[in-house]
Write a structure and sequence with these properties.
Number of domains: 2
Number of strands: 0
CATH architecture of the largest domain: Orthogonal Bundle
Number of helices: 10
Structural class: mainly alpha
CATH topology of the largest domain: Tetracycline Repressor, domain 2
Order of helices and strands: HHHHHHHHHH
CATH superfamily of the largest domain: Tetracycline Repressor, domain 2
Distance between the termini: 51 Å
Largest sheet: none
CATH class of the largest domain: Mainly Alpha
Strand content: under 5%
Shape: elongated
Length: about 200
């Protein structure tokens, strides 16, 4: 068991280094050799843990998706009203950008058009986030906090708004008053979809 744990730890370290090099160089310019140089290790050590650059890219994508997912969940909150509010705040937060660089995220995302496994990983993430929001909205509906017919449909529409907003708002500097105005309007539109009763 100790060996497996060490392997997992080494793989995480290499993936984080791969991510850092991709931030500096761009994903398309990142190589196993550059990651090895960045970490101060031999290329063969990376290839011991990852059979190819493609396998390393898939590890990077899983790293990105796990970080992305962690910012959206509020599992330890008992009050459904607070949980719903925090979830909506998280959906329109740019905190995820502090963990994941936009350039690396979108470079990885473009790979869905060439690799069905990567496409499936992104789809699984987006589906799980929609399911999570639908569950929160369902709980809020049971407690008479929102007035909507179909929690799943509402969650889907909110995510369509969120995903379009992320894409469009990445064209603005986050300190730009236009950015702040737009994100506030989009968040308000999403909250309006819930028909809050409180």
């Amino acid at each position: 068991m100790g060996r497996k744990s060490l392997k997992t730890e080494r793989q995480k370290e290499i993936i984080k280094a791969f991510y850092e090099v991709a931030k500096m160089e761009g994903l398309e310019n990142t190589s196993v050799a550059k990651v090895a140089k960045y970490r101060g290790i031999n290329t063969s050590l990376i290839l011991h843990y990852f059979d190819s650059k493609d396998e390393l890219i898939f590890g990077l994508i899983n790293y990105i998706l796990e970080n992305y997912k962690s910012l959206y969940t509020t599992n330890n909150i008992e009050s459904i009203e607070v949980k719903l509010k925090m979830t909506m705040d998280n959906l329109f937060s740019r905190d995820w950008n502090k963990l994941i660089d936009d350039g690396v995220f979108y470079s990885c995302y473009t790979l869905i058009f060439r690799d069905k496994n990567i496409k499936e990983a992104f789809k699984e993430l987006h589906d799980s986030l929609r399911d999570y929001l639908a569950d929160v909205i369902s709980e809020a509906k049971k407690e008479n906090i929102v007035d909507i017919d179909d929690p799943r449909e509402t969650a889907e529409l909110i995510f369509v708004l969120v995903e379009g907003a992320y894409y469009y708002l990445s064209l603005f500097d986050t300190n730009d008053p236009t950015y702040l105005n737009k994100v506030g309007r989009y968040k308000k539109a999403a909250i309006n979809m819930l028909n809050l009763k409180v």
